[in-house]
Design brief:
With 974 residues, the chain is α/β, with parallel strands linked by helices. It has a 7-stranded mixed beta sheet with strand order 8-7-9-10-11-15-16, sandwiched between helices. The protein has a 6-stranded mixed beta sheet with strand order 1-3-2-4-5-6, sandwiched between helices. The chain has a 5-stranded mixed beta sheet with strand order 18-20-21-23-22, covered by helices on one side. Helix 1 runs parallel beside helix 11. The longest helix has 83 residues.
Length: 974
C-alpha cells in the first residue's frame, strides 16, 4: 500500500486557508518508472501557481498518495482523497486500468479527475478531464505514418490490460480498412520481463514494423533483448505509444535509438513556453532529469484547472466543469484548448525518432492542434468500434420510404372514394332531373359539366398519386438496389473468405449498419489471418523445439551411456588396485602372524579396513548411478535367513567394538528361508547395523527378525498397500534394527532418505559417510517389493524396519502378475509352487556344480597381474595347481591345452572380455563341462549364470573364503 504524506506548498506569508488538491500516482511498483516524474511535474505546477499568488488568492496544498501500481490501491486512495482529505480535484493515474478503477469513485463522490496520459478513447466521463491524447491524436496518425512509409505488415505488441487491447482493436480495424496487414498480436503481463518468446514470434513472422503498447518495466527488457537479437531500427522499426524521454532513460538510449515514438510533446519542442518549462523542471529536480509528454500533460492540467476555477469563481465541481469549456492555454507543447463536448484537449500530433543522447528528434507533426475525437466519429472505418444499433440515416431512409408508400396508397384510395361519391350524387341528380317533372336543359348541362369536372379532378389526383408512387418506387428501388449491392459485395467477400482467401476485404462505403458489418467482417478476417499465421509460427517453433528436444534427448542418452561407461571404467580402474591392496594386506597379515611379527598386524589391518571403506564408497556411487538409470537388477535365490544374520553379525563385529556397543540378536534359528537377493538384503542390513553402531556410543543395538502374515508393498508401488481382500495373505520377513543412540528430529527424519544426505550436515562431518547408504538400501528394498521405515526420538535412539515378502518376484514377473491378478487370483500353495518353479528354472541355467579332485588344476584368466598373483598364492596354499593367463584369447588356448578342473574368469578384460570367453568355453565340446567361476566387480550375476557360469563372485575377493569354497568340492567323485 502506498504511503500518504501532506505537502503544503502555500506561498510565504499567506494566511488564507489552502485549497487541497490530490496527487495520485504509482510511486512504487512496476509503473513507478513512469509515474514518479508525472507526480513531480504536477508539484512543479503547484509551486509555480503558489508563487504567483495561488488560486482565488488561496495557496494550493498537495495531498500525495501512492497507487502502488495496484488497481485496488488506486480505488482505495481515490476514496480517501475525496472523502477524508476532501480535495477539490485529483491529478493522477497512468494506466487505463487504474483510471477505470477510480472512475466509479469520482462519479459517486462527485469528484473531479485530471488524467494526464494518452489512452484508447471510446470514453467520456463528466467527472474526468483527459489532458492526454485521444486515439485520433496519437494511435491513428502513428499507424497512418507507418503505412505511408510502406510498412504494411504490422505486428502488435502490448501489455495485457485495457489500453493496449482496446488501442490494438482500433489499429486492427484501421489496418483492415486501409490495406494494411496484421502480422501478429502478443500481450505480456504488465511489468513482465519475459520477452524472449514474443521476440522469437516477431522474428518468425517477419513484420515490416512493430506497434508497441507495452508499459512499465517490460519496455526495458523488450528493447534490450531486441537489440541483443541483432534487430536494427532500419530493418524493423518499432513505433511506441507509451515510451517517452523518461522511459528512454530507463531503457538506455543505445537500446532504443533509431526507433519511433508518437506523442504530442517532446522535450526538444522549440517554443518559449517549453524552454521555460524545461529550465524550471531541471532546476527543481536536477539537470539529469528529462521532460516528456505525460509530464507536460500533467503540468498543463494543473493550469487548466486553475483557469477554470478562477473563471467559475469557485472550486465547485459542477461550476468548474461548466467554466472549463473552450478554455485555452499556452502550454509548452503549443496552444491547447479544452473541447466543450468531450472534455478532451485539442493537441498537436508529433512523431519522433529516438536519438543516442536520449532525446527525441521530431520528424513529423500535424501542423495545427487536432480536435479530439475519442469515439472516432470522423472515420467511417471506425463505425464498428462504438456499440450502436442501426444508424439514424438508415432508420430514416427505410422509415421514410415506408411512410411515403403508405401515404400515396391512402391518398389514392381517398381521392377515388371522394370522386366516386360526388359522381354518384351528380348522377342521382341527373336521374332526378330526367323525371316527368323535368328540369331545364340548362340545369342539366350544369349537372353534366359538374360531373365531368369531378371525374377530371379525380383523374388528376390519381395521376398525381401515380407520379408520386413512381417517384417513391424509384427512390425505393435505388435504396433497395444500394442495399442489395452492398449486401452482394458483403456476400461475395464472405464467400471468398469462406473459400480460404482471408486477404479479401469488403468495401466500407458508409457508416450505416452494412458499413459496420463490412468493417467488422474485415477486422475478423484480419484477426483470423493473424491467428493462422501465429499458429503456423507456433507450429514451426514447436517443430524446431521438438527437433531440439530430440537432439537434447539423444545427447542426454549419449551422455548417460558415456557416464555409465565412465563409471564402469572408473570403478574398474579404482577397484583393481584396491582389490590388490586388500588382498595383499590380508596375505601379509597371515605371513606376519606366521613370522611372529605381530606389531605389523594392526597396521596391515588398518590398511585393509581403509581399502574396504574406500571400495564401499566407490560401490555406493556406482549403485546409486545404476539405480537412477534403471539398470540395477535382482539376482533371486533361496537362502537361510539365520545364515544371513550370522554373516551380518560377523561382518559388523569390528565396528561394534569401536564404540563399545553391545549387539543383541533376537531371531529363531529355524525361521526358515527367503527367496530374495541375498547380496542386496545383506548390504541393506549391514548399512542399518553399521549406522546404528556409528551413531551409538556404549549403548545397545538389537536385531529383531520375525515372520509376519499379511501383504507387503507391491513392486513398483512401494508407497501404498493393496487393499484387495481377494489376494492371499503372503507371509513376509521383518528385519528390525534398534539402537539407543543419538536419535533424530522429525525434520531430520523427513530428509533421511535423500541421496548424499544424512540427518544434517553436522552429523555428516562428525560421523563421516557419503549419505548414500540409506538411499541405496531403501531402493534395494523397494525393488524387492518391500520398504524401509523409521521411527526415531531425538536423544533416545532410532528403529529401522525392513519388511520383505518371503518370496520376491523380479519386476517383470511382478508386472505380469499385476496384469492377470484380478482375473486369476493365486492361492498361497500356488504361489509357493510358482516360486519353486522360478528357482528351479534359474538353477537350470547354471553349469554343473563344482566337483573338484584332490590337487585339482585351476586356470585363472585375468588381465590384472596382481589379481593373478594373489589368486595363485592363495590357492597354492590350499593345494591347488594354478596356471594363469593375462588375456581371453590366451586363456582359451591354455584351457584347451590343460583341460583344467576349474576356470576362474574375470569379466572386464581388453580385446576379449569375460562374457565372450565364457560363451566360447560353453561352445567348445571339450571345454563345455569345465566349471567356470566368474570373478568381477560388475553386478551382473543373472547374465553370468544364464551364460553357464557355475558361480559368480564379486570383487574384492575374500581369498580365504574363496579357497574354502573350492576346497569343499575337492575329493568329490565326478
Amino acid at each position: 500500500m502506498g504511503a500518504r504524506s501532506s505537502n503544503p506548498l502555500a506561498a510565504a506569508g499567506s494566511t488564507r486557508e489552502p485549497i487541497k488538491i490530490g496527487v495520485l500516482h504509482s510511486l512504487t511498483g512496476t509503473m513507478s518508472i513512469s509515474e514518479i516524474s508525472v507526480k513531480d511535474a504536477t508539484l512543479l505546477a503547484v509551486e509555480e501557481i503558489n508563487a504567483a499568488g495561488g488560486v482565488l488568492g488561496r495557496p494550493l496544498e498537495a495531498v500525495i498518495e501512492d497507487g502502488a501500481s495496484d488497481l485496488q490501491t488506486f480505488a482505495q486512495k481515490a476514496k480517501q482523497l475525496l472523502l477524508e482529505a476532501q480535495v477539490a480535484v485529483v491529478f493522477g493515474c497512468w494506466t487505463s486500468a487504474s483510471r477505470k478503477a477510480v472512475q466509479p469513485v469520482f462519479e459517486h463522490g462527485s469528484g473531479l479527475l485530471f488524467y494526464p496520459v494518452q489512452y484508447e478513447g471510446l470514453e467520456k466521463c463528466p467527472n474526468i478531464f483527459y489532458t492526454g491524447a485521444a486515439p485520433n491524436q496519437q494511435i491513428v496518425p502513428g499507424v497512418n505514418y507507418l503505412l505511408a512509409q510502406g510498412k504494411r505488415k504490422i505486428f502488435l505488441l502490448g501489455s495485457d490490460y485495457i489500453f493496449p487491447r482496446t488501442a490494438n482493436r482500433i489499429v486492427k480495424v484501421q489496418l483492415a480498412a486501409l490495406g494494411g496487414e496484421l502480422a501478429g498480436e502478443v500481450y505480456l503481463p504488465l511489468g513482465s520481463r519475459e520477452v524472449g518468446e514474443a521476440i522469437a514470434h516477431i522474428l518468425a513472422v517477419k513484420p515490416d514494423a512493430i506497434l508497441n503498447t507495452l508499459n512499465g518495466d517490460s519496455n526495458v527488457a523488450f528493447f534490450q533483448k531486441l537489440r541483443e537479437a541483432g534487430v536494427k531500427p532500419d530493418d524493423l522499426p518499432v513505433m511506441s505509444v507509451s515510451v517517452a524521454e523518461e522511459e528512454v532513460r530507463a531503457i538506455g538510449p543505445s537500446n532504443i535509438a533509431g526507433h519511433f515514438v508518437v506523442w504530442n510533446y517532446f522535450q526538444t519542442v522549440d517554443t518559449p513556453e517549453n524552454r521555460k518549462f524545461v529550465k524550471a523542471y531541471k532546476a527543481r529536480y536536477g539537470e539529469n532529469r528529462v521532460t516528456d509528454d505525460p509530464i507536460e500533460a500533467a503540468y498543463l492540467g494543473v493550469y487548466l484547472w486553475k483557469q477554470a476555477v478562477e473563471k467559475a469563481g469557485s472550486t465547485d465541481v459542477v461550476k468548474v466543469r461548466a467554466a472549463a469549456k473552450n478554455i485555452e492555454f499556452a502550454a509548452p507543447s503549443g496552444k491547447v484548448k479544452i473541447d466543450a463536448q468531450t472534455q478532451h484537449i485539442w493537441k498537436t500530433v508529433r512523431i519522433g525518432k529516438v536519438r543516442l543522447d536520449g532525446q527525441i528528434e521530431e520528424i513529423w507533426n500535424s501542423g495545427a492542434p487536432v480536435r479530439p475525437d475519442p469515439f472516432l466519429k470522423g472515420y467511417p472505418w471506425a463505425a464498428a468500434l462504438a456499440t450502436r444499433g442501426i444508424s439514424l440515416g438508415t432508420r430514416a431512409s427505410l422509415s421514410g420510404l415506408f411512410v411515403i408508400l403508405v401515404l400515396i396508397t391512402w391518398m389514392a384510395v381517398g381521392v377515388g372514394w371522394m370522386g366516386s361519391v360526388e359522381m354518384k350524387n351528380y348522377l342521382l341528380a341527373i336521374e332526378a332531373a330526367s323525371a316527368p317533372a323535368g328540369v331545364s336543359e340548362a340545369a342539366m348541362a350544369v349537372l353534366v359539366q359538374q360531373t365531368l369536372f369531378v371525374a377530371s379532378r379525380t383523374q388528376h389526383w390519381l395521376m398525381g398519386a401515380l407520379a408520386l408512387s413512381l417517384i417513391a418506387g424509384i427512390g425505393g428501388f435505388v435504396s433497395v438496389s444500394a442495399i442489395i449491392r452492398n449486401l452482394g459485395l458483403l456476400r461475395e467477400t464472405a464467400e471468398q473468405m469462406a473459400s480460404g482467401d482471408l486477404t479479401a476485404r469488403s468495401p466500407v462505403v458508409s457508416n450505416d449498419a452494412i458499413g459496420v458489418l463490412s468493417s467488422t467482417l474485415n477486422t475478423m478476417a484480419q484477426q483470423i489471418s493473424s491467428l493462422l499465421n501465429g499458429l503456423e509460427v507456433r507450429q514451426q517453433q514447436l517443430e524446431e523445439r521438438s527437433e531440439e528436444l530430440e537432439v537434447a534427448k539423444n545427447a542426454a542418452e549419449a551422455a548417460n551411456r558415456a557416464k555409465s561407461t565412465f563409471l564402469a571404467n572408473m570403478t574398474h580402474e579404482l577397484r583393481t588396485p584396491l582389490n590388490a591392496i586388500i588382498g595383499y594386506s590380508e596375505l601379509l597379515q597371515e605371513e606376519a602372524l606366521e613370522l611372529g611379527e605381530e606389531e605389523f598386524v594392526m597396521d596391515l589391518a588398518s590398511i585393509n579396513m581403509a581399502g574396504k571403506q574406500l571400495l564401499n564408497i566407490i560401490s555406493d556411487i556406482l549403485d546409486i548411478s545404476k539405480i537412477e538409470a534403471g539398470k540395477m537388477t535382482l539376482f533371486l535365490e533361496t537362502f537361510e535367513v539365520w545364515d544371513l544374520i550370522e554373516q551380518v553379525v560377523t561382518t559388523v563385529q569390528p565396528t561394534l567394538g569401536k564404540n563399545g556397543n553391545t549387539l543383541i540378536v533376537n531371531c529363531d534359528r529355524n525361521i526358515g528361508t527367503i527367496y530374495s537377493d541375498s547380496s542386496k538384503l545383506r548390504q541393506a542390513l549391514l548399512n542399518l547395523v553399521s549406522n546404528a553402531a556409528k551413531f551409538t556410543d556404549r549403548g545397545k543395538i538389537t536385531i529383531n527378525v520375525w515372520k509376519e502374515e499379511g501383504e507387503v508393498l507391491p513392486i513398483g508401488n512401494s508407497e501404498e498397500l493393496s487393499a484387495d481382500p481377494s489376494r492371499c495373505q503372503q507371509p513376509s520377513i521383518v528385519f528390525q534394527v534398534t539402537d539407543s543412540g543419538i536419535g533424530m528430529t522429525e525434520d531430520q527424519v523427513s530428509r533421511l532418505f535423500g541421496a548424499f544426505a544424512q540427518a544434517d550436515d553436522s552429523t555428516t562431518r562428525k560421523y563421516g559417510g557419503t549419505g548414500l547408504g540409506l538411499t541405496i538400501s531403501r531402493k534395494f528394498c523397494q525393488m524387492m517389493g518391500g520398504d524401509i521405515t523409521v521411527e526415531s526420538e531425538f536423544g533416545c535412539g532410532s528403529s529401522f524396519t525392513i519388511q520383505l515378502p518371503i518370496a520376491v518376484k523380479n519386476p517383470k514377473e511382478a508386472q505380469d502378475d499385476r496384469e492377470i491378478e484380478e482375473m486369476q487370483p493365486k492361492s498361497c500353495e500356488e504361489l509357493e509352487t510358482s516360486v519353486a518353479t522360478t528357482e528351479a528354472k534359474q538353477k537350470a541355467v547354471r553349469s554343473q556344480p563344482l566337483d573338484l579332485p584332490d590337487a585339482a588344476t585351476v586356470l585363472v584368466i585375468d588381465d590384472d597381474p596382481d589379481a593373478r598373483d594373489l589368486m595363485t598364492r592363495c590357492l597354492s596354499k590350499q593345494g591347488f595347481r594354478v596356471r594363469s593367463s593375462a588375456s581371453g584369447q590366451g586363456g582359451l588356448l591354455l584351457a584347451k591345452e590343460l583341460l583344467p578342473d576349474a576356470i576362474i574368469l574375470d569379466v572386464m578384460m581388453p580385446s576379449m572380455d569375460g562374457w565372450a570367453v565364457l560363451s566360447a568355453l560353453k561352445a567348445d565340446r571339450d571345454l563345455v563341462d569345465i566349471p567356470v567361476i566368474m570373478i568381477t566387480f560388475l553386478d551382473d550375476q543373472n547374465q553370468g549364470l544364464e551364460l553357464g557360469a557355475a558361480e559368480y563372485v564379486r570383487k574384492p575377493v575374500d581369498y580365504k573364503r574363496f579357497a574354502a569354497l573350492l576346497s569343499k568340492y575337492q575329493g568329490i567323485e565326478k
